[in-house]
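Re: export button greyed out
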Amino acid sequence: MARSSYEYPGYEREGPTYWSQTVGLYLVLTLGALWMTAPFWWTITSAFSANPTATEVSFIPAEFTFNNFIELYNRDNIPLVRWFINTIIFAGSVTVFNLTFDSLAGYALARMDFWGRDKLFLAFISTMMIPGMITLIPVYLILVELGWTNTYQGLILPLAANPFGIFLLRQHFKSLPAALGDAAKIDGCNELQTFYHVYLPLAKPALAALGIFTFMGAWGNFEWPVIVMRETEMFTLPVALFAVRNQYFAQTGLMMAAALIIVAPVIIAFLSAQKYFIRGMSLSGMKG
Amino acid sequence: MAYDSQSDDTEAAVNIDELRDGSDGTVARLKRRVGITEDQSNLMGFLFVAPNIAVFSIFLLGPVLYAFYLAFMEYSILTHESAYVGLENFYAVMQPYPWENGFEALRDPTTNTWWFSLRNTFVYAIGTVPLQILGGLAVALMLDKRVRAKKAYRAAYFMPVMLSGAAAAVIWRWLLADTGIINEFLRPLGLAHNWAGDPSTALGAIMLMAVWGGIGFNMILFLAGLQNIPQELYDAARIDGSNRWQRFRHVTWANLGNTNFFVIVMAIIGAFQVFGIALVFEEGGPFYATTTAVLLIYQRAFEENYFGEGAAMAMFLFVIIFAFSYWQYRYRKSEEVDY
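Workaround output, generated via the alternate export path:
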């Protein structure tokens, strides 16, 4: 798969230059990897420490305890379960909407024949270049007019489609043989049946990648929920973390336990489905 | 495993399919035979893309136009009414102009917060974008070689990418606190410092965090780009007697053209819009040191309800971002190579 720049005839894979370069390569890679992972490690250790101070949690928790999580759960002004449910509803719905809408559009743009198709694809792709901040205020005011602030639909619907997802799925559908669809049509399938029974099952890897990616993105999204959700009951976890931060900043153990509740699903999902994450991004191929 | 073998098949299918020039010819002929009219397939195609068109029109294109309209309006959240005020919002945001007072606004946030926040945004973008991109490229080049435990390294570098910005900001704010872990390591060296609490280092602290979170994202994009460069190009370059730098410059770099464009534009657009991490990290403080442009828009519009001024600032920033994207686009056109 991956080529190595060492793989050519006449390259010396021994000698002092080769070895010093190899050692240097691993040294740089390892130091970088430590920089990337150490904050996660420290988050975990201090979330499980009784009263963490910097010296204690540097490497391992001094005294292992679940008290931080129990305290978070028991505080009256912290509806932790509600926040968790809000976040799952938000991330889950956004993912379902995106997979449905983006696969329909991706299929149509890749495999169907209709007026203005390629121009429409270009238009969809161009919307990726629109900076999201320009729409924050107008979309919020639209939600105000509709009475949709502090509601799930107001939070979810503006994120129901994503040009990146359309692009990714369109590329994937284009990579599948056209003969499959031709055969299905000769057997009497209409366009929707061809899509649903023939192409959609073949797109599972791409759908899984996009699904995990979308879910994780929404799970951690802070900028949009902090604008739409102003009532404590309607917070998602990242917004709640911001609110908790202002109140309990000095209580490191609580803070890190709260952060870990957001971080943990990401770590677990990523480590168990790494190939889908990587594939999701590589699939798009950046071929335009 | 099943997944891997399947994906190899689809990759092979790409080429065959492209040789046949996609589905167009086949399907058109087929449709004529089974009697599907052009109108029917137009309608069908439209129905497939309709949900997306609806979402994009209502929540993206419509709002962009509405944003331009709002910039010239004064909107009241109580009465839901807006009144035309001409360029008043822009004046309120931009005056006093920085050139009228010797660019004092770039040093003192109390002179004019908007220009100061723009300064912060530019410092942030100039500091983070090159480091994120070069860091991502460097890691990708290292991992593209024959490296042991490649997957573990890749996972380590990618982990910060999926982390919520809010969680990252809380974690880093604590790591960089006066009594935080990082100072614990720096104290023996005499370098302990209140990184997040000092106006002169707070923005740097956020930038450090942004580089931390951005390298892995670019690494994945560059790794994908590197996979698409045919090995023959390297072989040919070697036969022609090129050295390592020439191969990098004229084969690797030249062939990453599309990836570079995408990565740079995305990084710049992202950097100019940063506000979540700055809000959680220190709420724009200490003393406006981390107030980025979009954070100021957020505070002005959503905390103080000056939506017209917020829209005017957003439009100002939009023009800057658009200019950068367009410049990159033109630059790419002149650099592009084809094989």
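The two ends of chain B are 34 Å apart (CA to CA). The button fix ships in the next patch.
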